[in-house]
Request: fold
Amino acid sequence: MKDHQSSIPNSRSSIINSQFPFINHQSSIINHQFPIPVHQSSIINSQFPFINHQFPKLALAAALIPFVLLASITLAQSTKPGQKPVTRPAPQQTKSQDARKDQNKETTDADIPVSDQAVRLGTDLVNVVFSAVDRMNHIVGDLRQEDVKVLEDGRPQSVFTFKREVNLPIRIAILIDLSGSQEFTFPQEKMAAAYFLHSIIRASSDLAAILTFREDVELAQGLTSRIETVNRALDQIEFSRRFASTSPRNQATALYDAVYITVDEVLGRGEARASGDEANARRAIILLTDGVDNASNRKLEDAIDRAWRSGVMIYSIGIGDRFRFEGVREDVLRKMSSETGGRAYFPRNPDELLGGFRQIENEMRSQYLIAYEPSNTARDGAFRRIEVNIANRADVRVIHRRGYYAPLEDIKK
Reply:
């Protein structure tokens, strides 16, 4: 009796097989992958004996439940956890779309300027600032690009930038000789320098520094845009006479060392100053001295060379005691100024001293800027000599630096 109740009649089994032919096939797979002990069926019949007797339809459903559950488990196991369902898009279409996207991206990136590339191009350009004056030393402000001819080592260059500059930022160092020859002229020098700085310095863009020298260089005031700070430092500088001393450097004057150090440590174009306004700023030393040097470790050529490398102009004001000392070395000061793009002035009285400062101010505010890419592309660090000539203007004299040093080959990192 129990066997009859615990099994499905043959007629019903044939009906199930005819209505659900897949069950036998799935059942064999399920039994192979998930073998179920036979005793579990007997447990079900023993726990629920009334199902087959009272509810034959429920019995049939109960018989199908294990197969349905096992079939669901099998389908669920066919996709492993963490594995995405396989999709089959058209492979050629996907690749072509990606290729078009990459091509569009490359075209867009190529059209955008890269900052380090722009910097490399800038290092190959040569910028030359020059002044033009007539026979009366008056500023000439009506030059045109076609009037200007540029030669580098004797070879013509193509100028593609030409403009008159009146608002470029300025970096000025007032370098004052405090040796014995300046004892009686120093008060006038202070007054003229104060007037000059007050007139030329714009707090929004310009900077000024004050230095003095004898056998050594002293920084009275570093670069600042605060004119009251500069004036205060200038007022505090006093001339002190040195009486008899056993020191061999008692009356020593280290002019060339002073110029070299001022360029190198105050106005030099270092890495931190190579961008923005600093890259375009005009740098100049206003040198107040008699031009005598008897104590420098460096030579005149060393000071000029350092100014070339940093783009610093030297404006010399030759002044000193012509009666008690050897006088003003005009040859030294003219060479130092002309080689670096500045000018030398030799005032004979306080009015001419003040006039010299005014001319320096006018010149620095009325200069021309030309730019060219040199035909000599060698990056060998050699010195290149520059000549700027004005065609068909015999009355015009051009004042500019005499050359520059070519860049060295970039070191590959």
Remarks:
- The chain has three domains: 2-78, 115-152+154-163+372-405, 167-365.
- Residues 56-78 form the longest helix (23 residues).
